[in-house]
Specification:
The protein is an alpha+beta fold. The protein contains twelve helices and 21 strands. Strands 1, 2, 8, 9, 10, 11, 20 and 21 form an eight-stranded mixed sheet that branches. Strands 5, 6, 13, 14, 15, 16, 17 and 18 form an eight-stranded mixed sheet that branches. A hairpin with a 2-residue loop joins strand 20 (253-254) and strand 21 (257-259). The longest helix has 21 residues, at 295-315. It starts with a strand and ends with a helix.
Length: 374
């Protein structure tokens, strides 16, 4: 066990691994600790948006082609209606099992010389460093990458936050031949279903709602198109659940401690932007470590989260409003360029200024206002 390091990362999920990789790319010594044994799994839709793929490339993470699939767009479905849009030209997403992604990121971190302390419980932090039991490892910088219920956030007195209503997501995998190269979102009366092909014979299926007791078995009949696709398919993974919400922190750093990933605030899983946010935060944070100007991280962190948070709020205007879902999909079918430009904005290929000039923002606002007054 080392006595000191430049950067100590607490949390070995994708966000922590990204922070460790980015710091090593800046030439800093890095130690990462986590109480788990890799690869670490988590309930998620397992679709990586184009901006996430770009960030992985910047981190030098190679995703195995044989264990992933290219995603070329998004499809919305509701009560027999559908609308779809491809990602902007020369961009694509990826679908990949969470455990496969974790393994690829761990291998990249090992290649760069990150020192791992797996199955090691961190018991506290101080201005001097990180405590593991009775031992303290001195560290110039400490990164909290320990998830939405972050202890590092609490230890650093950074817990002041605002949060929207919680939603609950459950995920598992089915052995079935994929039917699409799109990320599919099924809109129901009180929940959403998500389907993403993660291999040549497996599809990841997730559901999300505000009902903590609504599991996959009860949810699938609410999405007849998806249920029909999965009829007779073998279930190949255990059901896993997680909580989803939009959550903003007042501050994401204090003294020598910085937060990253879900520890630093979250966006609802409906956007598919959580991992991409983490990876881009990691790149910026490492640059701030190198320059010694950690205050800059706060500003860029806030800017990075702006678009995903806006998209989450926008998409969730459809939640629990079946008539509005139908009208919106009808509008998208009638004006496919509207949905296409919305997806382009979602993946960062179109600026808010262009959306405003197109009248899309105004049009969506009018639709929402009309729906709410019904």
């Amino acid at each position: 066990m080392p006595e000191s390091t430049d950067v100590f990362v607490i949390g070995g999920g994708p966000a922590g691994l990204a922070a460790a990789i980015a710091a090593r790319q800046q030439g800093l010594r890095v130690v990462l600790a986590d109480g788990a044994i890799p690869p670490i799994d988590k309930a998620c839709g397992e679709a990586l948006m184009p901006s996430t793929v770009t960030a992985l490339e910047r981190l030098g993470v190679v995703v195995p082609a044989a264990e992933s699939r290219a995603l070329h767009g998004v499809r919305f479905l509701s009560s027999g209606l559908s609308a779809e849009a491809t990602f902007p030209s020369r961009t694509f997403g990826l679908s990949i099992r969470r455990t496969t992604l974790h393994r690829a990121m761990t291998e990249r971190a090992e290649e760069l010389g990150v020192e791992f302390l797996w199955q090691s419980a961190v018991s506290g932090i101080s201005t001097e460093g990180v405590q593991l039991g009775k031992r303290t490892i001195r560290s110039r910088w400490i990164v909290g990458a320990d998830g939405a219920n972050s202890r590092v956030r609490r230890w650093a007195n950074l817990d002041a936050r605002s949060r929207t209503g919680l939603r609950y997501a459950f995920r598992r995998h089915y052995r079935v031949i994929p039917w699409t190269d799109r990320m599919e979102i099924y809109w129901g009366k009180c929940s959403q279903g998500y389907a993403t092909a993660v291999s040549s014979d497996q599809v990841c299926v997730a559901v999300a709602s505000r009902d903590s007791g609504l599991r996959l078995e009860e949810s699938l009949p609410l999405f007849p198109e998806l249920e029909a696709r999965l009829r007779g398919a073998e279930i190949v993974s255990a059901e896993k659940g997680s909580v989803s919400a939009n959550c903003k922190l007042r501050r994401v750093w204090r003294k020598n401690v910085a937060l990253i990933g879900d520890a630093s605030g979250t966006v609802d899983a409906i956007t598919g932007d959580g991992l991409g946010l983490s990876f881009n935060q990691a790149i910026v944070l490492a640059q701030c470590f190198f320059s010694g100007k950690l205050a800059q991280y706060q500003l860029v962190h806030r800017r990075l989260a702006r678009r995903p948070l806006w998209m989450a709020r926008l998409m969730l205007t459809l939640d629990g409003r079946p008539r509005f879902q139908q009208r919106t999909l009808q509008a998208f079918r009638k004006h496919p360029e509207v949905f296409r430009r919305l997806v382009a904005f979602h993946v960062g290929s179109l600026s808010p200024v262009h959306l405003a000039l197109d009248g899309l923002t105004l049009g969506w606002g009018l639709l929402t206002a009309d729906c709410i007054t019904q």
